[in-house]
Design goal:
soluble epoxide hydrolase; EC 3.3.2.10; AB_hydrolase_fold; eight-stranded mixed β-sheet; alpha/beta; AB_hydrolase_1; Epox_hydrolase-like; Rossmann fold
């Protein structure tokens, strides 16, 4: 079954959407992370389609063939979750199954937090739901130092200038090949200079696939994606009304055992100690072997984890219909 491509005018932007599977199947919304595209779900979409799901994978605003507003303020969590709500309305879908990775996981959690009425169940890869902290995000991260990638991404133009020292494919490969424990560069070094791009192709991505990503980022640039990071403090202020709120929809969290940041953010301890469960009461956790871009690196295992979870909800819906 071929991938279909279309654009939707939603929430003031045009989103490019890739779709695979029967148009009358239960909708699974697939949300990519940084620095990626709908293409990061290329190994999940056929598996979902084969099981009867309608896989919908947009390029998020700022990415690929979707619009990239110039104003950094247009990348708040309210704007991007607003895009998703409008997309579901465009599709005429009252409830959705949502799967997200990296920034897409953060957005999947926030769609579930802000609009639980629209979410049947959520699967998040690599990034857990963290409750709103006591201080703005960048204040909390300042102790890590200027070498930390999120800190470097804050200043408009800084990361873009550093990235521009390399061709786009090399920039992407440096991120995709990450196998270190922390994304922290030594003092005075930009994170993109610190990361290494292996000479050989990645074991889970062909050079042709890397070229497909690079072609889109070459056209759209990195400012839109980086603006998501520049809105972290704004997001902290905007989400004050949800301080202490829990994710109440059924959820599954898939954690890669060698994911970057697992130790530095305390993610592993947070998940294994039950901290995540306390904030997401109806939670299942799966810890699998792999690195950050897990759905591409270990597609069969990830597909199995996603499908075994989502099947529960489509079967119960059919039984209650």
């Amino acid at each position: 079954m071929a991938v279909r491509h279309w654009n939707a005018d939603v929430n003031g932007v045009s989103l490019h959407v890739a779709e695979q599977g029967p148009v009358d199947g239960p909708v699974v919304l697939l949300l990519h992370g940084f620095p990626e595209l709908w293409l990061s779900w290329r190994r999940q979409m056929p598996a979902l389609a084969a099981r009867g799901f309608r896989a919908i994978a947009p390029d998020l605003r700022g990415y690929g063939d979707s619009d990239a507003p110039a104003d950094p303020a247009a990348y708040s969590v309210f704007h991007v979750v607003g895009d998703l709500v409008a997309l579901l309305s465009h599709l005429g879908v009252p409830k959705v199954l949502v799967v997200g990775h990296d920034w897409g996981a953060l957005l999947a959690w926030h769609l579930s937090l802000l609009r639980p009425d629209l979410v049947r169940a959520v699967v998040a890869l690599c990034v857990p739901f963290f409750p709103r902290g006591p201080a703005p995000t960048t204040e909390s991260l300042a102790a890590i130092g200027d070498g930390f990638y999120v800190v470097q991404f804050q200043e408009p133009g800084r990361a873009e200038r550093a990235f521009a020292r390399y061709d786009v494919a090399t920039v992407l490969k440096k991120f995709y090949a990450i196998e270190i424990d922390e994304l922290i560069a030594p003092p005075g070094v930009e994170i993109i200079d610190f990361l290494e791009a292996p000479a050989s192709p990645l074991p889970w991505m062909t050079e042709e696939e890397l070229g497909q990503y690079a072609e889109k980022f070459d056209k759209s640039g990195f400012t839109g994606p980086l603006n998501y990071y520049r809105m972290l403090d704004t997001n902290w202020r905007l989400t004050a009304p949800w301080n202490g709120a829990k994710i109440t929809v059924p959820a599954k969290f898939i954690l890669a055992d060698k994911d970057v940041g697992l130790k530095s953010f305390g993610t592993e301890q947070y998940v294994k100690s039950g901290g995540l469960q306390s904030n997401v009461p109806h939670l299942e956790v799966a810890i699998i072997e792999g690195h950050h871009f897990i759905q591409q690196e270990q597609p069969e295992r990830v597909n199995s984890e996603i499908l075994s979870f989502l099947d529960k909800f489509t079967n119960s819906e059919e039984a209650s219909a």
